[in-house]
Amino acid sequence: MKPQLSELQQQLDDVELAVQYALELAAKEGTSAAECSISKSAGISVGTRMGEVETVEFNQDGALGISVYRDHQKGSASTTDLSREAIAAAVKKAAEIARYTSADPFNGLAPKELMTKDYPELDLCHPGDQSAEYAIEQALACERHGLDLDKRIINSDGAHYGSHTGFRVYGNSHGFLGGYLQSRHNLSCVLIAKEGERMQRDMSYSVARRTQDLAAPEKVAEEAAQETLSRLGGRKIDTAKVPVIFRADVAGSLFGHFVSAISGGNLYRKSSFLLDALGQQVLPSWLNIKECPHIVGGLASSPFDHEGLATVDRDIVQAGELQTYLLTSYAARKMDMQPTGHAGGIHNWRLTHGDKSLADLCKQMGTGLLVTELMGQGVNLVNGDYSRGAAGFWVEHGEIQYPVEEVTIAGNLKDMLANIVAIGNDVDQRHALHTGSVLLEEMRIAGQ
């Protein structure tokens, strides 16, 4: 059972007509502006555990949301029923709600002149087999292979396979109406190993727009087994100040805090440690961050943002200096600036990296901590204070010595970002932010 592109395109066309109809009705309600959107996804998710099928879920999600403005008063409503009667009822309800909401001078649509016009085709939709038989086969093959790899692997927290296709449509009373198809497939496995009386768990996963770009079930299982077995025999370490490497798969979280700190909502609320940092040095001078929203087939590619604004290649950081904030139209009006096309998130951030592998970074570090897992949410975006539980490996003389557990790493995000020593070539592209492993000059490690 594989969705056909022609069928998906017809569904998208039908939804565009529904959005257009909603906007026409909103205009008849005497509103000053309106916007309407729908994101729809359909597919299958399968979970297995210890060789047995645990869950099989088919889902079809999506609701049409309409927002109308009466001057600066806003009313919103939604419906999963796309019949003309249901759409008319939703529009009428949104218009009614707008009469009773408080006026906010910063409410409204994004500027008309910034709406995208001829947006590119980014090849984001590649339907895969969504039959239960195929999904179960992929999950079981992954989990079984993992359980057979080593006698120390005694259990599994399961394998999961998912395949979804869908689309996003957005329109507003400026005359913008657009949509695009998309797909996403994923495979993951979590294994549990035991040595003596102590147990460890870890995982691996793969995600792609096309099923043929997913890692094979055996490869995902082998990576999950390697990660799990490598953690056996974990030790505590003494409290110290040492260099730290965030491995590529957790390094994205470090820059995720950076994204939050330069996002409009935190800035206009004055709850960011990077308040008034525009044009200032926030990263080392050798480090650039460039946004590339139009990468063909990219996992975070998008022809326009959730307000219909054009997404464009953009320098976020150049030579370490912050070039732009990330602003929705609401945040932009609050800050007397222009929106940047980031309603809905960031799009394929590429960070400068060197030619050193993770092993090379360990050699450069000499002695310190390699972090492979982070726990807890001890991050204060207002002042940048950072404190999180961590696990990983202790490194001496440039070589991994033993696994480490039950430690806390602490510092201040402003200092951590400014004191990045190097970024490795092991770039993880499974997220919207593409970075390799990150070597930091120094952090406080709280151990035993």
From TrEMBL:
GO annotation, cellular component aspect: cytosol
Domain Metalloprotease TldD/E C-terminal: 240-447
A GO molecular function held by the record: metallopeptidase activity
Metalloprotease TldD/E N-terminal domain location: 34-98
Gene Ontology biological-process entries: proteolysis
UniProt KW keywords: Hydrolase, Metalloprotease, Protease
Parts of the chain that traverse the membrane: none
Top-rank taxon, per record: Bacteria
Record-linked Pfam families: PmbA_TldD_1st, PmbA_TldD_2nd, PmbA_TldD_3rd
Ranges where the Metalloprotease TldD/E central domain occurs: 126-232
Family classification: Belongs to the peptidase U62 family.
Protein name per UniProt: Metalloprotease PmbA
Species, as recorded: Idiomarina fontislapidosi
Classification lineage: Bacteria, Pseudomonadati, Pseudomonadota, Gammaproteobacteria, Alteromonadales
